[in-house]
Write a structure and sequence with these properties.
Blueprint (H helix, E strand, L loop, with lengths): L1 H20 L3 H19 L5 H27 L8 H20 L5 H10 L3 E2 L14 H16 L13 E5 L6 H11 L3 E5 L1 H4 L6 H15 L3 E5 L16 H19 L4 E7 L7 H5 L3 E4 L5 H12 L8 H10 L5 H12 L1 H8 L2 E4 L5 E3 L8 E2 L2 H6 L13 H8 L8 H14 L1 E2 L1
Helix pairs in contact: 1-2, 2-3, 3-4, 5-9, 9-10, 12-13, 12-14, 14-17
Organism: Erythroxylum novogranatense
Main location: membrane
GO biological process, one term: endosomal transport
C-alpha cells in the first residue's frame, strides 16, 4: 500500500514543476507541499536505505523550491514569465530589493513577521523572584551578579581588558532550580529578558529556523542591555553528526554558534543564559561558547531546610525550627522540585482532614475547627452540614503539623537517581564548576 504514497508524491511533484514553469507560483507551492506530505509518509515505510536516501534528496530539492516560492509570494513578486530555474536565479534580486527597502527605513516584511512571532518570548513583567528566594547556589548567584548587576551599576569597573561574562550554561539534574535562578536574574536585572524554548525557534519552513535565531539575537542587541534565556538547550544543540540529526537542526546550531560568537566580540551588552539537564548531549562547539558552565546540584541540608520554610510561607503551622531541621535530614537526595511537591501535598492535608471530619469545635472567634470527639466543646457535625447552615465562611482548617509532613514523606521518593548525579559530577570534573 505504501507504494501508492510514492506514486501520488511523484504525480504531485510533476504537476508542481509544470505549474512552476508556467509561472503559477501559488498553485505550484501548494502542489509541492502536497508532494512532500506523500514523500514524508512513504519514508515511514521504506525499508531500502538507498531508495530512502534518493527520495529524501529529491524531497529536499522540492522543499527548497517551495521555500523560494513562498518568499516570492510573500514579497508580491509573482511574475508569470519566469521558469522555475529562472526564478531561482532571480531570487537574490528579490532579496536585494527587500534589503534596500530596509535601508530606506522600511523593515523587511519577512523580518517583521519573524520578529512578531518572537515578540511573545519577551518577558514583559518581572517574575518577582529575588536572589534571597533562591536557596543555596551561592557561587552561581555570585557569578550571575558579576555578569548582570555589576556592569549595570558600576560600568567603570569594566574597562580595558576586563569584560563581564557573556554566556552561562546552568546544568544539573531536573528540578534543582536552573529555571528558577534565571527568573531571579530577570527580576534583579534592569534588562530586557527573552525567555526561549526550542519550540520558539523551530519552524517547519526550510530556512526559517535560523532566521528566527538571527532575529532573536538582533532584537536582543537592539534592546540592550538584555538577557536571552534558552531553556532545555540540548533540544536545539545536540551533538552534530548523530544519525537522527536533521538538516534543519544543523542549520540552527550553525546560526547559534555564529550569533553567540558575535555576542562575545561586540559590546552589545547581551547575556546568554542557558539551562540543560543533559550537558553531555550538547554539541562541543556550543559548549565551548559558554564562558561559565555552572553545576546546579541537589540542595544541601541548609538549603532544604530553607526551602521548606519558603514553600510553607505564611500558611498556619505548628512546626518548630527543630522540625524543619529534621525534615531537611529526612529529605537527603531530594531536589528542590521534590520538596516543592512535598509541601504542596502537605498544604492539602488540613483540607482533607476538614473534609473527613465528623466533629468540630467552635472557637472564641466564632470559627469552626475540626477536632477529636473527646475534645471539650466538640459537636458532632460534618462539613456538608455546616455548609448547609450557611457557615461555610466560618470553617477553618487546622494548622499544618509535623505529622502531616511525615504522612506525605512516607509515600514520596526522590526523583533523581544516583546514576544521574554521577553523570553530572563527572561532567563538572571535566568541563564545569560547582554552583
Amino acid at each position: 500500500m505504501y507504494c501508492d504514497f510514492l506514486v501520488h508524491g511523484k504525480e504531485y511533484a510533476k504537476q508542481a514543476v509544470k505549474e512552476d514553469d508556467s509561472g503559477n507560483y501559488n498553485k505550484a507551492f501548494q502542489l509541492y507541499m502536497s508532494a512532500l506530505e506523500y514523500f514524508h509518509t512513504h519514508l515511514k515505510y521504506e525499508k531500502n536505505p538507498q531508495i530512502g536516501k534518493t527520495i529524501r534528496e529529491k524531497a529536499m530539492g522540492y522543499l527548497r523550491r517551495a521555500e523560494e516560492l513562498r518568499a516570492i509570494l510573500d514579497s508580491g513578486d509573482n511574475r508569470p514569465t519566469l521558469t522555475s530555474n529562472a526564478a531561482v536565479a532571480a531570487q537574490p534580486k528579490v532579496l536585494a530589493k527587500t534589503n534596500n527597502q530596509e535601508k530606506g527605513g522600511k523593515e523587511d516584511p519577512e523580518k517583521a513577521k519573524l520578529r512578531e512571532g518572537l515578540d511573545s518570548v519577551i518577558v514583559r513583567e518581572k517574575p518577582n523572584v529575588k536572589w534571597s528566594d533562591v536557596a543555596g547556589l551561592e557561587n552561581a548567584k555570585k557569578s550571575l551578579k558579576e555578569a548582570v548587576i555589576l556592569p549595570a551599576r558600576f560600568p567603570h569597573f569594566f574597562t580595558g581588558k576586563r569584560k563581564p561574562w557573556r554566556a552561562f550554561l546552568l546544568y544539573g539534574p531536573p528540578g534543582t532550580g536552573k529555571s528558577y535562578l534565571a527568573k531571579a536574574v530577570a527580576t534583579e536585572a534592569d534588562s530586557t529578558f527573552f525567555s526561549v524554548s526550542s519550540s520558539d525557534l523551530v519552524s517547519k519552513w526550510m530556512g526559517e529556523s535560523e532566521k528566527l535565531v538571527a532575529n532573536l539575537f538582533q532584537m536582543a542587541r537592539d534592546s540592550a542591555p538584555s538577557i536571552i534565556f534558552i531553556d532545555e538547550i540540548d533540544a536545539l544543540c545536540g551533538q552534530r553528526g548523530e544519525g537522527n540529526e536533521s538538516e534543519a537542526s544543523r542549520r540552527i546550531k550553525t546560526e547559534l554558534l555564529v550569533q553567540m560568537q558575535g555576542v562575545g566580540n561586540d559590546d552589545g551588552k547581551v547575556l546568554i543564559l542557558a539551562a540543560t539537564n543533559t550537558p553531555y548531549a550538547l554539541d562541543q562547539a556550543i559548549r565551548r561558547r559558554f564562558d561559565k558552565r555552572i553545576y546546579i546540584p541537589l540542595p544541601d541540608l541548609k538549603a532544604r531546610q530553607y526551602m521548606f520554610k519558603v514553600h510553607l510561607g505564611d500558611t498556619p503551622h505548628s512546626l518548630t525550627e527543630s522540625d524543619f531541621e529534621q525534615l531537611a535530614y529526612k529529605t537527603e537526595g531530594f531536589s528542590g522540585s521534590d520538596i516543592s511537591v512535598c509541601v504542596k501535598d502537605v498544604l492539602f492535608q488540613p483540607v482533607r482532614e476538614t473534609q473527613d471530619a465528623k466533629y468540630f469545635v467552635k472557637t472564641n472567634d466564632g470559627l469552626w475547627v475540626p477536632c477529636e470527639p473527646t475534645q471539650k466543646g466538640s459537636v458532632k457535625i460534618t462539613l456538608e452540614e455546616l455548609d448547609k447552615r450557611g457557615l461555610a465562611s466560618k470553617i477553618l482548617p487546622p494548622p499544618i503539623t509535623r505529622s502531616d509532613f511525615d504522612k506525605v514523606l512516607a509515600r514520596q521518593k526522590p526523583t533523581v537517581s544516583k546514576t544521574d548525579l554521577e553523570v553530572h559530577e563527572r561532567f563538572t570534573n571535566e568541563f564545569g564548576e560547582d554552583g
